[in-house]
Amino acid sequence: MSLPFFRSGVPLAARVGVLAAIAVIAVAVLSLTHYAGDRGMSTALDRLSDNRSLQSLAASVANETLQMRRREKDFLLRRDDAEVQRYDASVSTALAELDAMAGLDAAAPVRARIDAGRSAVAAHRDQFAKVVEAYRVMGFDEKSGLQGELRTAVHAVETRLKAADLDALTVKMLMMRRHEKDLMLRGDMKYVGEVDARRTEFDTLLAASPLGAAERAEISRLMDAYLGGFKAYAAINATSGAEVGVLSDVYARLTPEVEAVEQAAEAGLAAAEADLAATRGTVSTVFVASAVATLVIALGLAWFIGRGITRPVVGLTGAMRALADGDTSVEIPDASRHLEIGAMAGAVEVFRANAIRNRELEAQQAENEKRAAAEKRAAMEQLAREFDASVGRIVGMISQASHDLSSASRTMASLSEDVDTRSANVAAASEQTAANVHTVAAATEEMNASIEEISGQIMRTSSSTQQAADEIMRTTGQMEALASVANRIGEVVSMISGIAAQTNLLALNATIESARAGEAGKGFAVVAGEVKALAGETAKATDGISGLVAEIQTETRNAVAAIDGIGRLISDINGTATAIAAAMEQQGAATREVSRNVVEAASGSRAVSDGISGVNTASRENRRAVTTVTSAAETLSDQSDEMRREVERFLAHIRNAA
Prior knowledge:
It contains nine helices and no strands.
């Protein structure tokens, strides 16, 4: 199979350019395939991320709506502004997340549901605000709102009735309070009628009371304020249940919308994940198919182009190998071609012609070499004679000089051995002296070290006693602080005893007052008796504590006195240790001076020993040098003899070669 482009008339550069173009096209095809696949994957991933965000926001909105419901119930149970703030935070979060959901592309199918959920959350917020305001007017506790006003009015009436000692009116007042509490607990409007009935009875008793007209008018005014506040509370309380029911209805509308959005988000997420998996499979299949097709086409074209290049090159290689083996009759292929292969064949043809020409030149050169060899032998013979005459004389002179040098070196070796023996004797004596001095120095150093160790132990003992003294001072301060605390405890116990006595007195007064109240005061009498008993127990306990505190104070003073005695003993020990340390320091200074003198003597002895060692070393070096010179002289003599033999051998070789 052959294509017009791959025939011999096409330059090699163009064929190689085609190979490069094929590689570029293959890379471009694979890049385009990868880019298209990457765009598809990016779109699928964006859709998946959008649906994940929608699902996450839907779950969060569901959680926040549950938190709204929980805060609502917590408020209805506790009547606390903190629950209102937590509810508002959940509403704000839910509305913000619903707005974020509405802005997602994946939320398009459920945008109406999201809008309905937002409206339901806003409606629940507004309705909850109404409920909170109603409870705020009624009062979160007995001190706020209408409850606080009722409490204030009742206390004002009770104060006046108590001052006038009108028990019957007080009983009616307490019965109205009981009906008030029943209404607050049960929400039954029948208690409004009960309060009206007790008010009528109260007014009848008030008219018959010995109070003045002005006092009765003031009590009636306060009772009117109380009754008006109670009826306002009852009216709001009657409607608050309905308002709370509206809250439940609004939440019931909100729940399906949130659940629908959450289900749609989960379905969209599943669809996006399936779409991503399908896109990933398609991209992988297309990319692999493109890569395989591109690879097959590129390899096929490369094979055709390579075959068109390598076949003539292989033929030329065979012809060149034959020429290298000496076969000048080989035929050069493709010599008639043009361009690169033809030029290479022409060059090989030139090699073949040059090989034929070289054979002719080699034959002529062999004849010239025979003639030059005869002339060379004659010249070498003449050179050998002249060399023997000049070099033989020089070798004889070197041999005589080496014998003289060997004799002188033996004389120097004898002198060096004598110097070495004398210096060794001096060095031995010096070393003995140095050893004795070192022994004295070592003993002095050991004595100095012992003194320093004793001094260190004494210093550490002094430091320890000082630390113990400091610790005694701190302990004394702590014991004094303990004594002060014990005194304060005694004062507190005395105060508690006084309070117990006052409490006992108050309990006695309460018992008397409850006895005066008759049947209505029996409960107060029981409580007053218990308070009195507790006051008595408190007094007994405080007496026991007072005794214990007195014992603690006594023991604390004894401990302070004992610690002061220990501190004085430690101060005496510290002074003694300091004196011993000073004496040991003086002894150590004297010992160090002796050690310094011994060290100087050792240094002088060592200097003498080092000098003798230097002389000994120099003598040994001199002997080694003499030995080296002797050896060199003998070697020189041997080498001169060897040189003579080599010269004779060289001349014989020259003559034989000539």
